[in-house]
Amino acid sequence: MKRVLLYGAAGGALIALLKLIEYKHFVHAYPAELYGGLLALIFTAVGVYVGLRWTRPKPAAAVPKHVPAEETLKGLGITPREYEILCLIAQGMSNREIGEKLFVSENTVKTHSSRLFDKMDVGRRVQAVQKARQLGLIP
Amino acid sequence: MKRVLLYGAAGGALIALLKLIEYKHFVHAYPAELYGGLLALIFTAVGVYVGLRWTRPKPAAAVPKHVPAEETLKGLGITPREYEILCLIAQGMSNREIGEKLFVSENTVKTHSSRLFDKMDVGRRVQAVQKARQLGLIP
DNA sequence: CCAAAAATCACCCGAACGGATGACGACGGC
DNA sequence: GCCGTCGTCATCCGTTCGGGTGATTTTTGG
Description:
The structure is a homodimer. Chain A is 73% helix and 0% strand.
């Protein structure tokens, strides 16, 4: 709300500045580039400022404390087998290695991990590991 | 060196653009503010970019609360930039996302991560994260 | 100032991964 | 018996990763 108003006000001020510059331009024909460069500098500076302003604040989200793994697992609908795959993924194993360890095909591991990522709402295995750690699923 | 030249060239081009705009302004009196606003937007965008680009890399990976990591890092010959990539990998980011966050190309991120894996003696990013945690490099 | 280290970027290639889909057998409840 | 869940496996397709090589450009330290 306030931000929008401020933005609008700033925009208006800038437009006014522009017109003013143009008036000057009418009077003196040559220092036009100078004013142009100045304007460029100004807007660049403004850009730097707002850019920094916009991307800086990053408050960390509070994480709920210890919830027994069992609860979380069932809450997410993660099956025992999927949890098993999750643990092995967290050990840094490839799908192939997991398949060999569990005596199943790599395709099966892929299916499990896909459903796992789906249930955990992640898209990459590293994210799955990180989230599982946050959830207390793995130490 | 080259960067300065490029900057100069870009500046010249922009000045030329400005003059061109001004010519248009001579012909049509009304859409002047429009062009001005456009220019403002452009320069603001440029400002955002360069601002982020030049101020980010410095405080970017000010993550580590752990000081004992310094020892391990130097012991392994891991550079600050590589450590930065390591942290972002541990957050589950893809190489592309890391590149966008750090304003470098994906190729660069790949180079860093490759050397990182080499120094950490791992072959996959999940292993790198796990090992980094074991070494106390990341919380 | 110059050499070394660090950072940047590009290209290629093969492997690994993720998503979507379909299928089949086993088990357990209702 | 029937339905739902689980585990298993496959195939296709596109993306991401990891490895290798080579090059240029800061940055830094002596």
